[in-house]
Amino acid sequence: MEERHKKILQRNRTNLVRDLDPSNLYDGLLEKGVFTQDMIDEIKGSGTRRDQARQLVRDLETRGSRAFPLFLLCLQETGQHSLAELLQNGAPTVHLQPATPTEVLRPVLQPLPVSPEREHIRPRPPGRQRRDSIQSYKMDASPCGHCLIINNVEFEPQSELSNRKGSNIDCDKLERRFKALNFIVEVKTNLKQRQIKRELSALSKEDHSQYDCCVVIMLSHGTEVSHNRFPGAVYGVDGQSVPVQHITNYLNGQHCPSLQGKPKLFFIQACGGGERDTGFEVSPDEVKPSVGGADDQTDAIPMSSSSDSLSMSDEPDARVTLPTPSDILVSYSTFPGYVSWRDTQSGSWYVETMDRILEENAATDDLVTMLMMVNHEVSQNSAKGLYKQMPGSFNFLRKLLYFQTQT
């Protein structure tokens, strides 16, 4: 497909995913040779109408130069004139000669003689799927699932940790955003280590069988700890930390059977290490326009001297010797070992950017693609005209994840 036609599809992807009726197009697209029967079958198997529309548009971009005008013709033939006009307005008028319907031939295959030296070769399994397509998680339950936000702002004096001004702004943004994505959102504020564990344990004991996903968001100070899978730890307001490794284990397939095979998402707004949070003040004359604000602070705490602060004898639901989990994604506000910047007036760079990216792109893009957008935008910021931040993720998802969005 020509690049200009791809851009037209990409600009109008939200409308196409929302309004397109793929079921009426399949026969025409097959007859005109835009898709093969295998491709049609795979699109049909991708999920809901929206999922099928999204997959169809994505696959259409990989076809030849005639794919776009033939797609317009199919839209017109099936009465989807508004979409056809929307796309046609962005492209020069294309005149197509009426195509002779292509008869789908089913060749008769004659068995080949088998020589003795070839008898050991296994035949190709029938119905093998194309390797250039990734399935999507089922995400159409209503509500979609639980979202637990733990927001630690005010720390006890003996913890020697400063209060996290601006974190309530992050919390409010995320609460609104995940409610808009059809999650049941519960916010817990200023929890000690043991209370954090208690909330995670309670979440793992919920019956998630009627839901499709589960989200945990941690807003706190953080530090580095030894680990064998997911780095970092987050602090309770008492100064005792919970390793991210253990946080994820509460919801893995062994400890939460009703979430087996379903995506479990963890968003960590906390430093993975670096300098102690002394409340770095950034004066206006030191900041470049549209980047870090005058009230940027970090959520960094020096690396813990022990392997972690959570005794395994305290909490039998959090083991670290399980196999690598599937269907888990952990997104960090900063690369492990570095500081994470937070503006006391507008919230953290990471949450502010992620909230906007989700608002603008959740209807058309999958989660991993959106997190890549977050990575890029946050990496362009600078505090004091010098300090940088790089978010990152540990991704054990097996499929694409598209959030529910309001149409």
From TrEMBL:
User: Which InterPro entries does the record associate with it?
Assistant: CARD, CARD_CASP9, Caspase-like_dom_sf, Caspase_cys_AS, Caspase_his_AS, DEATH-like_dom_sf, Pept_C14, Pept_C14_caspase
What GO terms describe the biological role, i.e. biological process, of this protein? Answer: intrinsic apoptotic signaling pathway in response to DNA damage; positive regulation of neuron apoptotic process; proteolysis
Any one Gene Ontology cellular component term annotated for this protein: cytosol
What the entry lists under CDD domains is as follows: CARD_CASP9 (cd08326), CASc (cd00032)
UniProt domain Caspase family p10: residue ranges: 318-405
What are the start and end residues of every segment in region (Disordered)? 280-317
**Where does the record place the Caspase family p20 domain?**
143-275
Write out the catalytic residues in the record.
221, 271
Q: Which spans does this entry mark as compositional bias, Low complexity?
A: 303-313
KW Protease (keyword) present: yes
Alphabetized Pfam families for the sequence: CARD (PF00619), Peptidase_C14 (PF00656)
Mind listing the UniProt keywords for this protein, alphabetically?
Hydrolase, Protease, Thiol protease, Zymogen
For molecular function, the Gene Ontology terms on record are:
cysteine-type endopeptidase activity
Give all residue intervals belonging to the CARD domain. Answer: 1-90
Its domain of life?
Eukaryota
Q: Which family does it belong to?
A: Belongs to the peptidase C14A family.
**Which protein are we looking at?**
Caspase 9, apoptosis-related cysteine peptidase
